[in-house]
């Protein structure tokens, strides 16, 4: 069994991961609307990955004989000034998620919930990658600046993500 407060925190994180999926899907739609289809495809893959994160928590709560409580997912932002602003938001978002995961880890330690603590280590590692990836794209976009050719090449590069990450999970 799982303690009520740990279960509530996991359910909150489940909602947060679902929101992240929604958020990246909204960014994908934004990039589609601006004809940056490679960026759009990258964001769509990211939305799928967030859904996978949510389902990991969903399965864990069920495995611990807990109760999954799905709640309202907030409507995400729909518009950004440009690609850099969108990816800066993504990077900020990932840093906020890392802080949420750390809070959860702290709670699992306080409650001596070793199973939850072990489960959360996957997310701790994943967040290192999530932050690094978002930060890397922000830096590339800063380098590209207003150079249309650079943006075209980066869009093409990010558009290859789906093929590369197939079977990667
Ligand atoms: Fe689920 Fe992007 O962290």
Provide structural commentary.
With 169 residues, the protein is mainly alpha-helical. It is 78% helix and 0% strand. It has six helices and no strands. The chain has helices at residues 4-33, 37-63, 83-110, 114-144, 148-158, 161-165. α3 (83-110) packs antiparallel against α4. The longest helix is centred in the C-terminal third of the chain and has 31 residues, at 114-144. The mean pLDDT is 95. It binds MU-OXO-diiron. MU-OXO-diiron (FEO) binds at residues 17, 20, 50, 53, 94, 97, 130.
Name the beta content range. under 5%
Q: Determine the fraction of residues in helical runs and give it as a percent range.
A: over 70%
Task: For the record, give the distance between the C-alpha atoms at the N and C termini, rounded to a whole number.
Answer: 28 Å
**Total helical segments:** 6
Tell me, rounded to a whole number, the average pLDDT. Answer: 95
Low-confidence stretches: none
Which structural class do the helices and strands define?
Answer: mainly alpha
- Summarize the helix and strand pattern as letters: HHHHHH
How would a textbook summarize the main sheet?
none
What's the number of extended β-strand segments?
A: 0
């Amino acid at each position: 069994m799982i303690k009520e407060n740990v279960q509530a925190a996991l359910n909150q994180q489940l909602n947060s991961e679902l929101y992240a999926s929604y958020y990246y899907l909204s960014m994908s739609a934004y990039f589609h609307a601006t004809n940056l289809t490679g960026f759009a495809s990258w964001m769509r893959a990211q939305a799928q990955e967030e859904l996978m994160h949510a389902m990991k928590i969903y399965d864990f709560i069920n495995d611990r004989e807990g109760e999954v409580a799905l709640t309202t997912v907030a409507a995400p932002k729909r518009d950004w000034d440009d690609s850099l602003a969108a990816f800066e938001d993504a990077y900020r978002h990932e840093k906020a998620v890392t802080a949420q995961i750390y809070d959860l880890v702290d709670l699992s330690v306080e409650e001596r919930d070793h199973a939850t603590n072990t489960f959360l280590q996957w997310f701790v590692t994943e967040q290192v990658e999530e932050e690094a990836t978002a930060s890397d794209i922000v830096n590339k976009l800063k380098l590209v600046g207003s150079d249309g050719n650079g943006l075209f090449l980066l869009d093409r590069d990010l558009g290859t993500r789906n093929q590369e990450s197939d079977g990667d999970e």
